[in-house]
Amino acid sequence: MYVCVCRAVTENDVHDCIAAGAKTARQVRDATGAGGDCASCVRKICAMLKRSEDLVTSA
Fold first, then answer.
1. CA 25 – CA 41 distance, rounded (Å)
2. Helix axes 25-32, 42-58, angle to 10 degrees
3. What is the C-alpha to C-alpha distance for residues 34 and 15, in angstroms, rounded to an integer?
4. 29 CB-near residues (< 8 Å, 6+ apart)
5. Which of 28, 36, 51, 52 is the most buried (most CB within 10 A)?
6. β-bridge partners, 2
7. What confidence score (pLDDT) does residue 2 get?
8. CA nearest to 13, candidates 2, 26, 25
9. For the segment 32-44, what is each residue's pLDDT rounded down to a tens digit?
10. What is the reported pTM?
11. Cβ neighbours of residue 14 under 8 Å, at least 6 residues apart?
12. Helix axis angle, 25-32 to 11-19, nearest 10°
């Protein structure tokens, strides 16, 4: 599923970026371009970051 249609960034791309150490939407944007155009995907990216953070803290 696409997270960012403007830059054709998928959920897998964002997950890979998070796994590589991204902690903020800005870091995801810098690595993938997602959120750099219309920014409508930033909320989705933030939610993905929060979920990954929650998984780490609950493990």
1. 10
2. 120
3. 12
4. 35, 36, 45
5. 28
6. 10
7. 97
8. 2
9. 999 999 999 999 9
10. 0.90
11. 3, 28, 32, 34, 45, 48
12. 110
Q: Whose structure tokens read 């944007």? A: 29
pLDDT given for residue 59 in this prediction = 62
The secondary structure of the chain as a DSSP string is -EEETTTTEEHHHHHHHHHTT--SHHHHHHHH-TTSSS-TTHHHHHHHHHHHHHHHHH-
- Residue tagged 């939610």 (tokens): 47
Please name the residue that has the structure tokens 């929060």. 50
- Each residue's pLDDT tens digit, 2-34: 999 999 999 999 999 999 999 999 999 999 999
